Every structure is written in C-alpha cells, then in structure tokens.
C-alpha cells in the first residue's frame, strides 16, 4: 500500500466523519411560536403585550398539622392586549405540585386557574413555598406563594 493510497483512505474516512458529525437533521431544535410569542421589539418599544394578573399571589393557610395536604386555586386574568401563553408552572420543592393550568392561548379579557397541591409531610414551623409561573408576558415569570405554620402533632414529637 503506497503513500497515496493511505492518503485516499484517510481523506475518505475524514470526509465520512465530517458528514456524519455535521448531520443536523437528527436533532429537532425548533421552538413553537406559542412559547416565544413575545412581541417586544428590538428598539425597546413594546407593541401589544399580554399581562397576567392574579386575584391574589399569596395563600396563607395559617396553622396546619404536619402531613396535611393543601389544595389551592390561583385565579388570574389576561389584562393585556395580546394572547397570553403559560409555558410552565413549577414548585420550589417536590412538596408542591401544579395539578392543572391552561395550556393554550388565553385571549385578552379571558382568565383561568392554576390548581396547586402542597404536601406538608416532613415539614415543620413557618414555611413559604414558591410557585413560578412562566409566560410570554413581561416579566416572563410571576411568583405565587403558599405560607403555612406547620405544627407537629404531639404523638410525632421525639421524647428526650
């Protein structure tokens, strides 16, 4: 095998590697326009924008017993002048689960509900749990809160 044959084999293998490594068809990098539909312009001027307004952003349950499960519904309205899209609702810990929220476009003047469940198991004392609501409005995230004073039952307290 001469030097020129080795060069051709090397070039063939290198070209095959480049073609396989550069194949961009295997990964779909598209993002739906509902998620990125935020009509702010590059010059800083805003056109029509959605705006999410909650009846209340904080639920204070007061004293509850450790292990108690709370369900609370946060009601909101799109008070802006463009469709609102909620892309995600997440709790600050595994104890808080968003049960349901609207997944399509919420037109101006329309509203909806975000149903959240908080499990106080293994928690005690004053707690403030955060729920983040990601939307196409500005600001892009709105924080909701659940505040509780969790009391440990006497039969669960450690004896010294």
Termini separation = 85 Å
CATH architecture designation of one domain: Sandwich
The topology string of helices and strands comes to HHEEEEEEEE
Bin the strand percentage: 35-45%
Work out the helix count.
Answer: 2
By DSSP, the count of extended strands is 8
Helix content: 10-25%
Given as residue ranges, the uncertain stretches (5+ residues, pLDDT < 50) are 18-31
- CATH superfamily membership of one domain, which one? Immunoglobulins
Report the biggest beta sheet as strand number plus sense, adding barrel if it closes: 4 strands, antiparallel
Shape: flat
Radius of gyration over C-alpha positions, nearest whole angstrom: 26 Å
Spatial arrangement of strands, main beta sheet: 1-3-6-5
Pfam families: DUF1573 (PF07610)
Protein name: DUF1573 domain-containing protein
InterPro entries: DUF1573, Ig-like_fold
Keywords: Signal
List its salient traits.
single chain, 160 residues, mainly beta, Immunoglobulin-like, 4-stranded antiparallel sheet, 4-stranded mixed sheet, 2 helices, flat
């Amino acid at each position: 095998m001469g030097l020129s044959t080795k060069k051709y084999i090397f070039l063939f293998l290198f070209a095959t590697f480049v073609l396989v490594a550069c194949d961009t068809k295997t990964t779909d990098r598209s993002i739906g326009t509902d998620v990125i539909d935020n009509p702010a312009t590059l010059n800083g001027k805003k056109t029509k924008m959605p705006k999410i307004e909650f009846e209340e952003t904080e639920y204070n349950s007061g004293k509850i017993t450790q292990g108690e499960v709370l369900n609370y519904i946060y009601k909101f309205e799109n008070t802006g002048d463009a469709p609102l899209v909620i892309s995600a609702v997440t709790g600050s810990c595994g104890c808080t689960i968003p049960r349901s929220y609207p997944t399509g476009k919420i037109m101006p003047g329309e509203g909806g509900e975000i149903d959240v469940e908080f499990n106080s198991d293994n928690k005690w004392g004053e707690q403030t749990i955060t729920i983040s609501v990601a939307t196409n409005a500005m600001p892009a995230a709105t924080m909701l809160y659940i505040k509780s004073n969790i009391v440990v039952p006497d039969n669960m307290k450690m004896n010294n």
